[in-house]
């Protein structure tokens, strides 16, 4: 009640401050938003969010001031934990309807557990596992906690986990700390006999709550407490030794309790103070060696426990006090070296962050500017000096040395290795409970995941990628600074960037230079972004195919409108809540989750990622069935219609095929030449004729034109290419995958494939002169792309999805090699704009390329446009085409070819490719693409996947081009 009253009082004061600031015109958070384009409802929602954010900021300032002035605070530089609180205010600001899921310690399917016998080890109820961390860097101390028992030394090795249910199928728990990727897994072991449940609960409570003060963590099931349920897990601190026979011997739990009791006395007894102060230097050194690195506690203080880094007989303040003539002996001083939390250090200063952003931007300009002057270098040096002043400010130091009198401190008999291992338990136990709760969802959907890590990744929002510290990250960080090891080993930052970084020109160029893996590989990238990218294609395919068959008389435009209404974010978020995915979504509390629209997007992305996980784990048929159950499960008649669509009208007219019509129709007979050319025989050849009917008239032969098949084929190509890119480009984020997909899904590539297959010769038109007119069109004409998409749709309807996949493997995927090796994954116009942006001045508005129409010649049906492109009033090139867009593309392409020396970013593109692949390899690979080499096509169809056509660079690691990456570039 006191905490609630304090929160209400803080909010009341903050609201009053906000009203005062707004009256003075100092709160204008909407000035940077385009409110003119917003509706009235959107503007009110945004104003409400801004008001809440401002009030929250004011409350945070009050909370920090309150904690700094707390009378029981051990030292102003030490931060302590309070229930439900971060260092700067409440942990959760979510609305009641959103307070579900692991982020609020609520797990679906949990119920009260029958209590164990506290005076027994309950061998018939509990399953014992040893918690293993790989690698053991920072979790294997050189000086571990030691307990002497019967003159034998037992060293701390970790924790054991006793669970009420089996965890044999639990996948490894992956997280990263200290720039190192860790995996935590369980090893089943026989249940040890030398403990009782009561003794384990006492030990875990002492470590987790008394020493570490992890006050928000609970081991009881959701909705239960100590009076009604047993704990989900019991933790066993493992102190072990190896016997003469090599067998592992665990120290009994009662011996650990006895050790803690024997080492719970005062650090320095008052009766021994005089003798301690009179010790010689050698005696003093031996005396403090036993305490250095130990944990000591002061019950009632905040925080209660710290790590001892040094013990001094007196401090400067104590020396000054003794000079006043007082002869009262003073206690020695405990030295603790800690760090200020990042949110209160110089990294969080607005001035420093603005200066750092300007520094990165200025450095970025120097890197890509061919002519760098002395003024720019002086500006860069000035910004660097400005940051150094902030970093070295006395009140903003990162590392702080704290001195405290040893009076009142008590020993614990433990070292930081115990607390270091205990601080990973909140995240790991949450991981175990989440995977246990998946069974409730599995029973609801009627399917058991073979790889539960896919579902866990699908429910991981990008905001929680770095939040691997448990329910309350500030509690774990505070305890880590107060009780954790002082010296830690950190890994390479590049490994973390490869898994988390998405933006930046240099990083994008490095990633986009990687050729596809011959075999499927699992991606190391965390979060559900990639799964959401794949799930979007899965959902769109399911919806499009069903609408195509269920509504045979509806035109392409109406089919697209119906599809958009079913795949829109609001509808997918509704399906996610109906399925119960909101009870599994993991996200980090932050400013973004103030708006209902943020939760809607998070739920819709989670649903798409879930559908991708279902597809990868159980196939497309399972994803189709689950989607139908979720959307139509409450309406059996609609579910029946959705699940049993009728055949295509052409198939319905002749169920056994219509090839018997070939002698009667010359147009159909002509298509047999196309079938022989592509090596595919249609059962319903009129489907092939319909896909090639680029006409608006209805006829009895094709039953319409190819627009509906084009709508279907576009979705099929999107799904097949997305599926391939997801599985064979494991180091690409969803943005990079979209770029690669656009290289194959654009009209230029599709038009070229259409010509290569010879479809242009068989296009059916109303007039005899139409085919010759079509052949005279440019290869990039959208007509050819539409014909190819409709052809893909006809292949799917007549055959199945496997034939579409083989078509893409032969005709599309090998072209990726050309796009990557030539760095043509971006169209010329976008690439020229990118080059112009790299030459912009920091203090001025970015200049872009300007296209000017020079002339327009020819008749209305055969016009030719000539366009010139200018940058900074300098003509870079010109181009012509039958449309303005084509002319602009040609002009940009010519400008890039004629001005390569003026754009350093183009040289950087080439440098990355040259360092990753040798010239001979590039030449041979491109020759195979241009010659349609059978061996290259075979590699993409997985006929002989054991002999790769190129040597991959260590699984696609970016370390090979690290020397050409710019770590300080602006993101």
Automatic annotation (TrEMBL):
GO terms for cellular component: nucleus. Residues 827-901 form the DRBM domain. Residues 438-619, 671-800 form the RNase III domain. One of its GO terms (biological process) is pre-miRNA processing. SMART domains: DSRM, RIBOc. GO terms for molecular function: double-stranded RNA binding; ribonuclease III activity. Residues 948-971 are annotated as: Disordered. Coiled coil: none annotated. Keywords: Endonuclease, Hydrolase, Nuclease, RNA-binding. PROSITE patterns: DS_RBD (PS50137), RNASE_3_1 (PS00517), RNASE_3_2 (PS50142). It comes from the Eukaryota. Residues 954-971 have a biased composition (Acidic residues). This is Ribonuclease. It comes from Macrostomum lignano.
């Amino acid at each position: 009640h006191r905490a609630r009253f304090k929160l209400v009082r803080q909010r009341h004061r903050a609201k009053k401050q906000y009203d005062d600031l707004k009256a003075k015109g100092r709160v204008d958070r909407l000035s940077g938003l385009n409110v003119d384009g917003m509706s009235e409802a959107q503007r009110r929602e945004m104003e409400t969010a801004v008001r809440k954010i401002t009030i929250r900021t004011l409350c945070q300032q009050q909370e920090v001031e309150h904690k700094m002035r707390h009378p029981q605070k051990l030292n102003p530089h030490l931060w302590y934990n309070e229930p439900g609180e971060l260092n700067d205010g409440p942990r959760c600001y979510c609305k009641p309807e959103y307070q579900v899921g692991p982020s609020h310690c609520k797990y679906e399917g949990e119920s009260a557990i029958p209590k164990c016998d506290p005076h027994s080890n309950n061998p018939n109820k509990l399953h014992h596992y040893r918690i293993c961390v790989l690698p053991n860097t920072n979790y294997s101390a050189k000086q571990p906690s030691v307990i002497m028992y019967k003159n034998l030394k037992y060293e701390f090795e970790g924790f054991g986990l006793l669970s009420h249910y089996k965890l044999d199928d639990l996948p490894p728990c992956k997280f990263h700390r200290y720039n190192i990727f860790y995996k935590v897994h369980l090893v089943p072991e026989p249940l040890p006999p030398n403990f009782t449940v009561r003794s384990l609960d006492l030990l875990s409570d002492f470590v987790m709550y008394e020493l570490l003060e992890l006050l928000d963590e609970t081991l009881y099931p959701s909705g239960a407490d100590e009076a009604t349920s047993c704990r989900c897990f019991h933790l066993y601190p493992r102190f072990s030794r190896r016997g003469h026979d090599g067998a592992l011997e665990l120290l009994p739990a009662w011996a650990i309790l006895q050790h803690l009791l024997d080492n719970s006395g005062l650090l320095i007894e008052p009766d021994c103070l005089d003798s301690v102060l009179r010790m010689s230097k050698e005696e003093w050194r031996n005396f403090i060696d036993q305490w250095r690195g130990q944990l000591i506690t002061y019950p009632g203080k905040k925080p209660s426990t710290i790590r001892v880094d040094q013990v001094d007989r007196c401090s400067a303040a104590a020396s000054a006090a003794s000079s006043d003539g007082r002869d009262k002996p003073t206690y020695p001083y405990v030295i603790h070296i800690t760090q200020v939390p990042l949110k209160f250090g110089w990294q969080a200063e607005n001035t420093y962050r603005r200066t750092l952003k300007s520094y990165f931007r200025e450095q970025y300009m120097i890197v890509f500017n061919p002519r760098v002057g002395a003024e720019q270098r002086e500006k860069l040096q000035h910004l660097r000096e400005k940051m150094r002043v902030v970093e070295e400010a006395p009140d903003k130091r990162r590392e702080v040395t704290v001195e405290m009198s040893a009076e009142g401190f008590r020993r614990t008999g433990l070292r930081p290795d115990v607390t270091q291992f205990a601080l990973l338990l909140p995240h790991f136990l949450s991981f175990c409970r989440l995977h246990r709760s998946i069974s409730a969802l599995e029973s609801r959907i009627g399917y058991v995941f073979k790889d539960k890590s896919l579902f866990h990744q699908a429910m991981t929002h990008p905001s929680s990628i770095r939040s691997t510290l448990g329910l309350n990250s500030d509690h774990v960080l505070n305890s880590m600074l107060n009780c954790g090891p002082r010296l830690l080993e950190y890994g390479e930052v590049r490994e973390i960037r490869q898994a988390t970084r998405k933006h930046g020109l240099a990083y994008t160029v490095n990633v986009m230079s990687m050729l596809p893996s011959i075999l499927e590989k699992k991606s190391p990238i965390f979060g559900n972004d990639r799964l959401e990218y794949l799930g979007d294609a899965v959902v769109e395919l399911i919806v499009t195919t069903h609408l195509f068959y269920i509504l045979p008389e509806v035109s392409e435009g109406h089919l697209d409108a119906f599809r958009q209404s079913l795949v829109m974010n609001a509808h997918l978020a509704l399906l996610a809540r109906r399925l119960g995915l909101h009870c599994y979504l993991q996200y980090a509390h932050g400013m973004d989750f103030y708006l209902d629209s943020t939760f809607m997007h998070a739920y819709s992305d989670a649903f798409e990622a879930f559908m991708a996980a279902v597809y990868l784990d159980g196939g497309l048929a399972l994803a189709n069935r689950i989607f139908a159950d979720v959307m139509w499960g409450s309406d059996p008649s609609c579910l029946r219609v959705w699940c049993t669509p009728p055949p295509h009208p052409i198939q319905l007219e002749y169920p056994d095929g219509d090839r018997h019509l070939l002698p009667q129709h010359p147009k159909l007979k002509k298509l047999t030449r196309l079938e022989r050319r592509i090596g595919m025989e249609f059962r319903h050849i009129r489907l092939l004729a319909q896909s090639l009917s680029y006409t608006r008239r209805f006829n009895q032969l094709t039953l319409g034109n190819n627009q509906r098949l084009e709508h279907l084929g576009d979705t099929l190509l999107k799904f097949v290419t997305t599926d391939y890119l997801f599985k064979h480009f494991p180091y690409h984020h969803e943005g990079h995958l979209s770029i690669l997909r656009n290289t194959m899904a654009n009209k230029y590539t599709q038009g070229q494939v259409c010509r290569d297959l010879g479809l242009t010769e068989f296009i059916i038109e109303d007039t005899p002169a139409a085919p010759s007119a079509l052949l005279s069109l440019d290869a990039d004409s959208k007509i050819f792309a539409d014909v190819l998409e409709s052809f893909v749709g006809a292949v799917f309807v007549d055959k199945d999805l496997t034939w579409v996949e083989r078509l893409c493997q032969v005709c599309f995927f090998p072209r990726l090699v050309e796009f990557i090796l030539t760095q043509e994954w971006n169209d010329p116009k976008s690439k020229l704009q990118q080059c112009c942006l790299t030459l912009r001045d920091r203090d001025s508005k970015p200049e872009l390329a300007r296209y000017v129409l020079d002339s327009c010649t020819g008749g209305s049906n055969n016009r030719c446009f000539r366009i010139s492109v200018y940058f900074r009033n300098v003509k870079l090139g010109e181009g012509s085409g039958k449309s303005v867009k084509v002319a602009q593309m040609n002009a940009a392409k010519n400008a890039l070819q004629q001005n390569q020396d003026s754009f350093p970013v183009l040289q950087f593109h080439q440098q990355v490719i040259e360092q990753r692949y040798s010239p001979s390899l590039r030449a041979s690979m491109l020759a195979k693409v241009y010659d349609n080499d059978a061996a290259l096509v075979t590699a993409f169809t997985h006929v002989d996947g054991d002999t790769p056509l190129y040597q991959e660079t260590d699984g696609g690691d970016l370390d090979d081009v690290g020397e050409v990456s710019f770590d300080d570039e602006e993101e």
